[in-house]
Every structure is written in C-alpha cells, then in structure tokens.
Specification:
mainly alpha, PilJ/NarX-like methyl-accepting chemotaxis transducer, signal
Length: 295
Amino acid sequence: MPFIRLLFVICLTVVSSLGPLRAAQAETSYDQHVLLIGEQSALGHRLVRSICFAQAGIDVARNRRVIEQTRTKISTALLALTEGTDTISPITNGNIRTQIGSVAMVWKGLDKKAVAFLSGTGLTDEEVLKLTFKSQSLEKLWRNVSQSLELQTSVNQAPEKLARTRIITTATNQSQLLQEAGKEACLIHLAHASQTGQTETAQVESLKGILATFDQNIFDLTFVRPAQSPIAQPDVLEQAAFNTWQDWVGLETLFQGIIEDPNSQDMINLLPDMSFGIEFLDTKLHENIAIFMSL
C-alpha cells in the first residue's frame, strides 16, 4: 500500500505540472503565430518594392535576390501556419484556416507576376504599377487573419499578455510600413519616368501618411513605452531600439526629399541609397523583435 500511495503521489505531481507547462507552450505558440502573421503583412509590399526598384534599374542584382527570398518566405509561412513545423504548431481554427486559404489564392496571382518578372518575359512599367493593388489586398487579408487570431484568444489573456501582444503587433507593423513606404516612393518615380499619365498626388499623400505612422510608432517603441513600463527595459533592447531610431532618422530624409519634389529629376539619385537603407533598417527591426521575443 505505501508503494501504491507513493506512485499515486508521483502521478498526481506529474499531472499537476503539465497544466502550467501546456499553458506556457500555448502562450509561446500564440506569440509565434502573432509574429509570423504580422511579418507576412509586409512581404507583399516588399516583393512589389523590389520589383519596382529592379524595373527602374536600381541595385538590380540585390533586388532580384530579395524577390526570390520574399517568395520563399511567403510560401514557407503559409505552409507553417497550416501544416506546422518543428517549432510552430499549425493553426486549427476552421475560420482562420479559411482566411489563410484566401491569402494563398491572392498570393498565387502575385507570385505569377514575380515569376514572369524574373523570367525572360518581364513586366511593363504599367504592369509593375498595378502590382500595388495585389500587395494591398494581401496586407488586408493578413490583417483579417491577425484580427481573427486575436479575437479567438484575447478573452482569456491576462492584461500583461495583451500588452506584450500589442508590442509584437506594433513592431511587426513597422516592417510593413517601411516596405510600403519604399514601394510608394519607387512607384512615384516609375510613374513619373514612364509618363504613364497616372496621378502622383494620391501616392505622395499615401507616402506622407505611412511615414507619419512609422515615425510615431518608432518614437513610441523607443522612448514612450519604456518610460511608462513598470519594469526596466534590458539594456540590450534599449540600445538596439535607440540605434534603430537613429538609422531611421537618416533614412527618413531620403523619403522627405521625394515628398518635397516628387517630379524632380534628382529623385533617381535618392533611390539607390533608399533601396539599401530599407533592407538595412528592416533587418534591424527584425533583430529588435527577436531580442524582445527572447525576454
């Protein structure tokens, strides 16, 4: 009997420890889903931005590599969310899986254009300009997926967990805004250079709005939220965020140059540095998120 009692106590202890472990695993899985889905909203814009820069003859080899990398990232993410990987569990909610299916359908159309661009077929300037609508559709569909995921899980989340999720969402939004800003800036140049007759006013106003939102977010993430947080931010994250903000201040001047005179012949001189600067800053943004996720 003593042995049986001991065995019972051991089993009870093991079972009771599984609850917190599963809860922790569920939280980690949720964070991974939020991060992965958030990152996807940027990739359609990144693809079109790189196509536009390459079409304009700017940093062609590297932008073609970015196109290939982006195609792989999107395809891999779609598979991870529906089938799972060694580190990411698949999404099982039927409604969200249906929404991801809608994303995949729109993505196939954009991917065909990317393949045509990379092949000998190529695309006309007008065709490249129209790709912005597909990237916008992809972003909206990913937003729907993100909102559905948040709605499904937010009811049972503690306030501090919700705050963490919002930080992850805002941080991933920064990549989306940065890529979209680069896309708009290049399309303004391409529309002007190709003399398609399309108005640039709406694109300039769109670019202004994107930059204003990015600027507000990066200031908030770098200075406001750490000051308001009851817990001191680790030095490594604080320094990384500050360095990223400084890099943004430099890149922002290139965007402002396009906004101030979108019809300038000198605009082509701004785009090579912008092409490199966007990818450099985007890498910094992802490094910052990785630091935050490790805390």
